[in-house]
Amino acid sequence: MNLKQLHDYFKDSSGVVTDSRELTQDSFFISLKGENFDGNQFAKMALESGAKYALVDRPEIAKENNRLILVNDTTQTLQELAQYHRKSLKAKIIAITGSNGKTTTKELIKSVLSQKFKTQATKGNFNNHIGVPLTLLNFDENTDIGIVEMGANHQKEIDFLCQLAQPEIGLITNFGEAHLEGFGGLEGVIKGKCELYEYLSETKGIIILNTDDLIQKKWQFYSPHFTFGENTEAECHLEYLKRKSLPLTIRTEGKNIKSQLYGEYNYTNLGMAIALGKFFGLTFEQIKLGISCYKPNNNRSQIIQRGSNTIILDAYNANPTSMRASINSFENNRKKRGVVILGDMFELGKYTEEAHQKVLNQLISTDIDEILLLGIHFFGTNSQDSRVQLFKSDAEIRSYLIDHPFSESEILLKGSRGMSIEKLLKYL
After folding, report:
1. Domain CATH code at residue 419
2. Residue 273 to residue 269: CA distance in whole angstroms
3. What is the mean pLDDT of residues 205-209?
4. How confident is the model at residue 245 (pLDDT cuts 50, 70, 90)?
5. Is the pTM of the predicted complex or chain greater than 0.90?
6. In whole angstroms, what is the distance from residue 117 CA to residue 280 CA?
7. Rounded to whole angstroms, how far apart are CA atoms 88 and 105?
8. CA distances (Å), 364 to each of 113, 360, 382, in order?
9. Which of 292, 314, 339 is the last residue of a domain?
10. What is the tens place of the pLDDT at every residue in 345-378?
């Protein structure tokens, strides 16, 4: 079956679904496979549950119903279908990658551009070889601007995602010590993320450059580009009002824009959204409304009041760079007794032991009152500081929190996604 025929089936459906638990009437079920599952097993059931078509790559299953469409490889076909669909769209595609802040930046940009355009974006953090195709297939003929988040843990991954999404505009949030195991170090991270800019340079796309980032400034030779930052030469000049007050506020065009975000590391995320608003011709009031109405609710830079305690929940993910930034911001802005609860960082490979010890050393150098560290990697660190408590298991830290309740404190919660550090909220 050729891609045009397959695309016609897709257009005749209510949309692509890959999880049989999320089926909708007349949907197009795609049977994906993984190490521990085979979606082919649910294809027939999907049709019985309301799916109009189902894509499979096992011939013996395809024989059971003429609405079961046989292909060689369902994952590859999903990607090819998304690429074909992308070519049919009139939407401008914005690609976002970077080590930290991708999802927050994506949501901010969506909030701003939605004030003027029909804007759609990656749901959650569906930013890999499966998530990007699903995102593209969610865009339709009514979409003015599509925002595609791109994640990667090794080189050439961003390039591959660019070939699928074919963005006209792109930006990199930052370069940090994330996925060091796959990238082979920070230089590998920089090279991998810059695959987005390489793609745009080859296709004459537009790069949105942060002129405060020395690595990104090296791309100013490339045209076309649009610059933003505190640098007075930036096309979108911003002033980050760094003061001990929440939430974060940015000044541009001589006027302030107040957000609902915590953490100085979010200044550039906000700056990118403001820059995109200006690039697309939004008024100051439209940009201000888009920024001010965005409130994080996804374990990213959330501020939660629990009795006399203020909790900073930044627990969606973590790496050495984001850990340093969160600790610095917490220490610089807190007004009450400070408590830090951190979980292990993952995917660091040979850098694991060193990275966790550096985080602990940074904490010890601050005036933070109590330091609670959870996970086997933090448990292996060394400290004689009485403020530090190390916990190997969830049960141990839960017991401690129950026996030692906090009051009149500001509490930072952060860790890698696999640690699910937000589960400790119920004990605070």
Report:
1. 3.90.190.20
2. 7
3. 97
4. low
5. no
6. 9
7. 26
8. 42, 6, 11
9. 292
10. 998 999 999 999 999 999 999 999 999 999 999 9
